[in-house]
Amino acid sequence: MGNLNSIRIGKEAIVSLGQTPRHELKVQIRWLIRRDLPEVLEIERDRFAHPWTEEEFLSALRQRSCIGMVAELDQRIVGFMVYELHKASIHVCNFAVASWANRQGIGSQMVQRVIDKLSQQRRREVQLELRESNLEAQLFFLEHGFRAVSVLRHFYEDTSEDAYLMRYRLDWVDEDFVPEYAPKNRISQYEIG
User: Fold this and answer.
1) Three-state SS for 37?
2) For 70-116, how does the pLDDT look when each residue is reduced to its tens digit (9 = 90+)?
3) At 118, is the secondary structure helix, strand, or coil?
4) What's phi and psi for 132, nearest 5 deg?
5) Architecture of the structural domain at 4-189
6) Which are the contacts of 104, defined by CB distance < 8 A and separation ≥ 6?
7) Entry pTM
8) What's residue 62's pLDDT?
9) Residue 192: C-alpha distances to residues 2, 47, 133, 161, 188 (Å)
10) 170: helix, strand or coil
11) 56-70 b/e with 16+ CB inside 10 Å = b?
């Protein structure tokens, strides 16, 4: 099962709207262990229309290149992330923060922890896929220095929705950087209601 996309193609990250946190809660970020799974699954079911099952989490975490981490506040899991380590990159496979803990800096702390794992000598980028309709996650990751670098057509099996490949690179220090293809969110141009 070398690539987690074979486990669950199209898992999008859901996080809080890209706004300044109301107040930042300091959390302990640590490795995900098996006894965390009930709380992780509770967050997963609350945040995703097509949640990973316990077996999908276990299958992913059994892979040598796959790591899970959790954010803990007062001995309660408030967020999690599952990511794969590749030779030159980190791929975020699944990421969520408990809905009651949104906009309190928890997702930002977790993303920063992954970014801190990058180095000039080895892994230089973090990447993930987001549903085209998940504007709040797009804004969150843009706020953290990620850029949409391509559109993945019909990426999600459950709806055949397109995804954006979002990427953060260490060498993107020039704010004038524009990827070869800068996708636009086609959903955001329509008014709701």
Assistant:
1) helix
2) 999 999 999 999 999 999 999 999 999 999 998 899 999 999 999 99
3) coil
4) -60, -35
5) 3-Layer(aba) Sandwich (3.40)
6) 16, 21, 22, 23, 24, 25
7) 0.78
8) 96
9) 41, 21, 13, 19, 9
10) coil
11) bbebbbeeeebbbbb
Return the closest-CA partner of residue 94 out of 110, 78, 108, 81. Answer: 81
Quickly tell me which residue has 């559109």 as its tokens: 151
Contact 80, 95 (CB under 8 A): yes
Print pLDDT tens along the chain (193 aa).
333 332 333 344 444 344 444 567 889 999 999 999 999 999 999 998 889 999 999 999 999 999 999 999 999 999 999 999 999 999 999 999 999 998 899 999 999 999 999 987 789 999 999 999 989 999 999 999 999 999 999 998 888 899 999 999 988 754 445 555 555 666 555 555 5
- For residue 79, give the H/E element and its range: strand 76-85
Q: What are phi and psi of 25, to 5 degrees?
A: -85, 130
What token pair was written down for 153?
A: 């057509």
